[in-house]
Structure formats: C-alpha cells, structure tokens
Amino acid sequence: MAEDQNASDLDLVRRIKRGDDEAFREMVDRYHARVYSLSYGVLRNSEDAEEATQDTFLTLYRKIGTFDESKKFFSWFYRVALNQAYSRARRRKPAVTVPIDDYLPRFTGDGHRASSEFTAWVDGVEDEVIARDLAERAEGFIAELPETYRDVIWMVDVEEMKPADVAETLDISIAALKSRLHRARLYVRQRLAEAAALPADSGSEQRAAT
Fold first, then answer.
1. Domains along the chain?
2. Model confidence, pTM
C-alpha cells in the first residue's frame, strides 16, 4: 500500500516537473488536510496553520525540481512542511514550553515509582470516560513540549504516521524516535492524570465565583 502511494506521488511529481498544473492541484487535494494538521500541531493557531500550509505548497511548486526521485516523496514533503511551520513560528512570540524532566516519573532504589498518587491516576487515565473528557486537553499538553518531543508524538499519535516514516521525515534513528516518543507520552499522561484529579465541577464553580 505504501509503495503504491509513493508510486502515485512520484507520478504527480513528474507531471508537475513537466509543468502540469492539474497534477499540482491533485497534489494539493491529496495533502492539504495533512499538511494543515501538521502545521497546526506546531503553530496551534488555525490562521497561522493555513498560511504555513499555503507556504508549503508554494515551496513545493518552486522547488519540486530539486526533489530526488529515488527518495520517498512523502518524507521529503513533510520536512518541507515542518520547515515552513517552524519558520512562521520563529516570527511569532516564542511559545512557552516546559522542562519535560520535571514531569517524568521518578523511581525509588527498588524500581518502584516514587509517587503512588501518580501511579494511581496514570493507571486510571486510560478509562474510556476519562479519556473522552480529557481528549481536548491532550493537544494542549502536547503543545507545551519542546519541538523535538512535540513533533514525534504529534506525528505518531495524532497524525497516525508510521514510526519508520516519522524517523525518516525527522532524519533520526528509530531508537531515537522511540526514546523521544516514550518520554513525550509519559509527560502527556502525567499532565492528563493531574487534570483528571481536578474536581469535575471546579471550572463551573470558579466561573460562578467570578
């Protein structure tokens, strides 16, 4: 299936290189939603994400001639999209990120988690009702991560890209990807656990008080 997709992409690439505008429109239709989603994962703003998406396709049109057809188009194009998103992000006020190590679980000398409270909430956070209630918060917690962690968890867990494709896109080893993904997931799970620990009506009570 992946080979068929790459072959289809390459057919469009070759047609675009020959100046076929219809092929370019087909490429936009094929990848617009995914490029937008990837851009939004970086920028967290719909207007900025749409502009970064437009920049990505403009760059594609201008630089398609430099694409090495022996490579996988999908990975090359996603690197272009990431570069455009981060280029736009650098022009904005720097986003606030958190030191991920502060939220990773700590262990005692015998290998047990140092915080039993954390264990209880993390073990329960997979519950279907809790997961549904906290799903929207997860994206916000992902956005707090430094980009090296944010990119991998967004691509794998939100975009549902294959780890091998993500590693190729980011030009890192599978081992490095797995390490970053594991740490990013631990962070998000703990943040979800902390959110799950808040009373369900605390937000409404706070609004009523104001």
1. 2-90 (1.10.1740.10), 100-201 (1.10.10.10)
2. 0.69
